[in-house]
């Protein structure tokens, strides 16, 4: 195992020059997620737009601090999901989650994941899995909240908590 | 290490099994070979378990859940794999298993969930969603049985003392069975918890879990099963038992000292406020206040007993390789032999069921005219390790009119030859003490 | 095993010591030799400790305090001898030492003494003589510091949440020392408990115990010292420190996982109601009520961590043979070397005292432009086990304006060559991440 | 080590035919002691008489149930202490306690201990030490209580408790 398989150039680039960073308006839901082991925090805002029965991710904005993996992952997520149809965005999220949790057993699909395949190496470093997922879990949590006005989860609750301890 | 095919009772290769337990070949007192029959108190450990612990220390030891380095990764992985392995041993999910110091602590963790929820509610402090299930009011009732180990009695007495709840219990019959007839009076709409033992460590009685659970479910009580004497000795499946929580100890099932287990339904754990607090169980901490991680982490503050979890997982491996049904069948055979043997000795009275139906291998008895401790001492002189006293079930002794008993409790590595030795020694007791 | 003459700092035979720790010769990642510098989280174990545990299991394992047979006698004797040995390691008496699961549990045991006394008093339940010392009223204050491990913060927050007591804290200065100037405002007549760390696990700061104790004594508060980071690293004498209670963990001082210690003055223990209840901690039990044994048994319910106590006693033996002053001197030398080395690296900022006065070996730092976790990962790739994160002292990080740190914490088996490796790696961090 | 060194004939004799057993009047103090590990219980009553400044143990009566060691020990105690001057009785108690706790390292003085030397073998069986001391601790506790009207110890308290856990 080589450190460069974890810190691929594309990750370091996104870390230094994150895309889409900064909290923007308008948004439907804003969530605040924390990685309890390191104390890093991330705010994610989601703005969905519905047109002809098709929901699109009009904007994902984010801000916070964290390690290179978590920051780059947020940036890549923005690039990938911004402007996508919601169903497509959630499919990408699913594929990303699966890859990261796979301990290197899943060959990522570059068609679906684009730049995010650079994070494949993270799956071999269990302590960093949470870093890579932080933004994505926040996104998913936010979407769930937009979907149910009477949300089952507060941003403080289950999804973040769940992730916090794996 | 020798592992025989699962559930092949015919292939029970006692000498191969015994070779896995180095301590069994030692001698005691005057060069007597050790006959270890104190398994209801604690079991011996196979080499496989000791090797697993040692391997952990010698190759991967690190603080879990906190590190970016390779050892920490390995330690965390071994710890969490052990959790999954042990949970699956009782048919549970990994995130439903909490490690404690011993079964006693697991039962206290549950009783303190009630205390803490009640006190926090009164103080207006924050509680997890669903915690109302744990808030007690004066007049609420907690039900145990008259055959509980102190570990499943005193914590509930304490809880009642602190909250004004009332402790009630299902009585027992003269032959040491639960008095189910009285159950309907005891388990009522006021009942909030029914906590009872799966198998009595004093009497050997295996309780009719389904009947008690049905009565508890009718009134919506939380159902807790003390499985200290069942998980080591028979197949246990938490889903089939339809209980809310199960508690047991590692040291009685070939595992290390210093580790116990609480299995509980995820929704129950989710609703419980924390017990012991500190590092690794938090979500966020400021000087002013803290929020808590979800279960099982919420209940595992501080550096956990990692090596012990790894050792206990190896014990599960060992037991499953033998097959828990085969273990139970072997013990059942020994119990029949022991009961029959004791009944033939004049002046010996068995305390607990004399028939071998719904009965485990812990067999208590008294000898006419000789105190149980003197009986045990006489056995000890012959190399036989028996237990004497009230076995932490003092009220049960009182109920059955004995101050104490002598107890023999064979396990998977014992054979009939061990029982022959023990029976022979029991035969010698009354003559020695001039009681016959 | 190699034991060198006590306190012969000149004779510090590092390679002989390292030979006692099998794990130190393993490699990690890409065949890099392991450089273990995560000792503030947990220490490695010498063969002597592993052998002691194993010997116990293979020769004398039995349930303690309950048996008439020889194994039970031997197990009890080894357990109680371990208690005496470990108590004497900190200058305490055997009956003042309570075994817990870890230091976190020891601190909770103390905080729950306050909760239980308060709740029982309110309910009119029986309490030990002197328990009034533990009964809290709304407005009573509990004092900690801003450099506590969560283990010495969250339990007190919880206690306050439940009782209406108020948590206060002594702040820290920018260089990570206690702000003694503010102490007089914080410790007042309302203070009932002062609980603070002897040595910060994040900053390395060794606190001026005498000053804090003097302030606490003036107002009659109970004084608790969290010695997790001092007992393993320097001579600690409870009488000289003039404290009421001391808590620490076995796993950080070469001992097994799964055992912690609470030393407390006999009169304090005597006055405390029980925490975890069940077997072996009772005096008499009926279905209606129970009375409790005196300390330390009162606080050790259920089958205890016997093998772990035996292992920890062996660790004390090992440390005393080296001599705790010699251990401290060796670490002091390493700390000077490490501080000097880090200060020379551009972009590195030490979090905590930069001078080596009243300072232990835990050295935290941040690297400009690189997140602490990425620093740790880079070190890990070179075989260096460092810790990253808030180190369970999140409020301390906040106070000092960092989200997290990378921490190196050498111990008795580390040498300058380990630090050279670590420093060399730290030098490589900024170039690798393009931050320099 | 031989079982007969523990169960000397004299112990078994006292067990079968205890001397002075049964609770009698008058008494100054009555205590109830329990051995928590086995559940055995013993009541001991003490009646002291003072004459010319010399206090004498006028009666020790006892009753309860327990193992052969504890019962025989109470009987032998009765024989030895009954009618003795209190100081002498306490000296004997001290010598007995010392012998029993010695793990076989102390050669008992038959002059002082009389029949009680038969209990020397108990000291090699740690689990039985409590048995042999039960009656004697109760006696001592009772004496302490007669000595201080405002007794520091209730019969339920420290001395018994102390012993209960060694
Ligand atoms: C200062 C301090 N206090 C308390 C603890 C908690 O110790 P443990 O996790 O062993 O309970 C630690 C170690 O993590 C510590 O460093
Ligand atoms: C039925 C039962 N419950 C609870 C316990 C307590 O177990 P532990 O002492 O390991 O906590 C025991 C064993 O002593 C037991 O047999
Ligand atoms: S280290 Fe905190 S998110 Fe990566
Ligand atoms: S066994 Fe109870 S006093 Fe001897």
Number of strands of chain A: 3
CATH topology-level fold name of the largest domain in chain B: Aspartate Aminotransferase, domain 2
Could you tell me the mean pLDDT of chain A? 88
The geometry of chain A reads as globular
The hetero molecules present are: pyridoxal-5'-phosphate, FE2/S2 (inorganic) cluster
Largest sheet of chain B: 7 strands, mixed
Order of neighbouring strands in the sheet with most strands of chain B: 4-10-9-8-7-5-6
Topology record:
The complex is a heterotetramer, with two copies of chain A (166 residues) and two copies of chain B (436 residues).
Chain A: H1 3-6, H2 9-16, E1 29-35, E2 40-51, E3 54-65, H3 68-81, H4 86-100, H5 110-113, H6 126-147, H7 158-164
Antiparallel strand pairs in A: 1-2, 2-3
Helix pairs in contact in A: 2-3, 3-6, 4-6, 6-7
Chain B: H1 14-19, E1 27-28, E2 32-33, E3 35-36, H2 47-59, H3 70-89, E4 97-100, H4 103-123, E5 141-145, H5 154-163, E6 166-170, H6 183-186, E7 191-197, H7 209-218, E8 222-226, H8 238-241, E9 245-249, E10 260-264, H9 266-271, E11 282-285, E12 290-292, H10 306-322, H11 324-343, E13 348-351, E14 363-367, H12 372-381, E15 384-385, E16 387-389, H13 394-399, E17 405-408, H14 416-432
Parallel strand pairs in B: 3-15, 5-6, 5-7, 7-8, 8-9
Antiparallel strand pairs in B: 1-2, 4-10, 9-10, 11-12, 13-14, 14-17, 16-17
Helix pairs in contact in B: 2-10, 3-10, 4-5, 11-14
The complex binds pyridoxal-5'-phosphate (2 copies) and FE2/S2 (inorganic) cluster (FES) (2 copies).
Residues 35, 38, 40, 66-67, 69-70, 131, 134 of chain A line the site of one FE2/S2 (inorganic) cluster.
